[in-house]
Amino acid sequence: MQEILSMTYYWLKAGHLIFVIFWMAGLFMLPRFFVYHQEAPTGSDEAARWVEREKRLLRIILTPSLVLVWLLGLALVVTTGAHTQGWFHAKLLLVLALSGYHGWMSAYAKKLARGDYALSGRKLRLLNEVPGAAAALIVVLAVIKPF
Ligand code: HEM
Known about the structure:
This protein is 85% helix and 0% strand. By secondary structure, it is an all-alpha fold. The model has no long low-confidence stretch (mean pLDDT 96). Bound molecules: protoporphyrin IX containing FE (HEM). It is found in: Cell membrane. Catalyzes the oxidation of protoporphyrinogen IX to protoporphyrin IX.
């Protein structure tokens, strides 16, 4: 029984980390796409191609990965009892913020599709640092478990 539980834990963790990688890869790519998209004139064929690429990135990689990271992460909470530990509360806060960032990026893709280029390329490049910084903190919390 103990062996089955520990194998379940390792398989859940492997799945969790695989989809964390996909999710992060998508979160790094999307604002980059926005920068190139905004360099194309509104209403051009090039802009329409970027709208399609952004939609596909969201539909095929970002949204399914977000859902699977959450489902596998919550299954790990049940397996490990992490909800009673301080590091997990801090991680949860950061993961909620990262999920909010995902939602905001997805809304910005819709704005761009309507031709509303609200943010400058410089701002988008700065925003591109958010998932990297959040991921670094989350990994330190999950691996070192400092408190
Ligand atoms: C979406 C909500 C998430 C939940 C509910 C969640 C929950 C968990 C839980 C309970 C564990 C097991 C910890 C243990 O073995 O004691 C874990 C492992 C891990 N998580 Fe998450 N997680 C989430 C998102 C993320 C994200 C976004 C990242 C990275 C950017 C991440 C990185 C990791 C890493 C690196 C481990 C392995 C830690 C280790 O065993 O050394 N998680 N997660």
